[in-house]
Design a protein that fits this description.
Radius of gyration: 19 Å
Distance between the termini: 31 Å
Order of helices and strands: HHHHHHHHHH
Helix content: 55-70%
Largest sheet: none
Number of helices: 10
Number of domains: 1
Strand content: under 5%
Length: 298
């Protein structure tokens, strides 16, 4: 397959700028991304079911209404993690650009920068995580058994992959596809954030606004830092901070699909983002090893 190399110094959201066909490629990216996400999710469910049954767990079933256990969360996370190869295949097939350009304008994942972003986000969300976990341990009346430890292991080892999969699709492929259509940078960020929020299929105003805020901020961070590493770090740490206490309280279903939501989570996220984002940008400016994106004004 013929490949195309983006111009040196191109802003991250303009990486896929193509001489023609930007609009149909954008629509194809969005449509195939959604269809692929659904297909990968279904495939991961059957894969986990098959493995569980082959290991002798004949009673294992995928039913979120009776609570989310380790196996079900594993299936969900692996399905979303598969968005990484899916996004890579789409960007290569539709734009002729190698998948590594979705990670950053270096190109490729800047691992040192990713680790630094994880450290920053871990500090910012540490109070939330520590207080939530401590409170859950105090409230929990039953002993922590193997099922809980299994759930914790799935959260710690697969949630970063789930976050990375979503970042590759929404802040990698979709953001760059919008940029290739010559949308202004602010509209690229808001539009990718809106699609990210809608993809959760939860349209209660507080929930949708929270996901819209998160998606828009992560897209803006990708443009400012020239890659999706900050988004992966923030997204993963945030999800871990929510899922660990929820797992200890056996309230994962409520955490993933809450009912009777208020605006408080949006306020909490806005406060934490207002701390984490400037810190990440300051660290990016001070770094001598992270390649800088070109300045953008369009």
């Amino acid at each position: 397959m013929a490949t195309r190399r983006p111009l040196t110094g191109t802003a991250f959201h303009r990486t896929l700028s193509a001489p023609s066909g930007a609009w149909w490629r954008l629509l194809a990216s969005a449509a195939l991304g959604v269809v692929g996400m659904l297909a990968m999710s279904v495939a991961s469910v059957f894969a986990v079911l098959g493995i569980a049954r082959s290991l002798g767990n004949a009673d294992f079933s995928f039913e979120l209404t009776d609570g989310v256990d380790a196996g079900e969360l594993l299936a969900v996370n692996l399905g979303l993690a598969s968005l990484i190869p899916l996004s890579g295949a789409l960007v290569w097939g539709l734009y002729g650009v190698r998948p590594r350009w979705l990670a950053s304008h270096r190109p490729g994942m800047r691992w040192g920068w990713l680790v630094r972003c994880v450290g920053i986000c871990a500090v910012v969300w540490s109070i939330f995580l520590v207080l939530g976990t401590a409170g859950a341990l105090l409230v929990r009346s039953e002993p922590i058994d193997l099922s809980v430890w299994s759930f914790i292991a799935v959260v710690l080892f697969t949630t970063p992959l789930q976050a990375a999969g979503e970042e590759y699709l929404f802040r990698g492929l979709l953001l760059q596809a919008l940029g290739a259509a010559r949308w202004p940078v602010w509209l690229c960020c808001i539009a990718s954030g809106a699609v990210f929020a809608a993809a959760h299929l939860q349209f209660a105003p507080p929930l949708f606004a929270d996901r819209l805020l998160l998606g828009t901020v992560l897209a803006w961070l990708a443009v400012r830092t020239g890659g999706i590493e900050a988004g992966i770090a923030l997204h993963a740490v945030k999800n871990v901070a929510v899922l660990l206490p929820a797992g200890l309280l056996d309230e994962v279903s409520s955490a993933l699909d809450p009912s009777g939501v208020t605006w408080l989570p949006l306020i909490v996220d806005a406060v934490l983002l207002s701390i984490a984002v400037p810190w990440i940008l300051a660290a990016h400016r001070r770094s001598n090893s992270v390649a800088r994106p070109s300045r953008f004004s369009d």
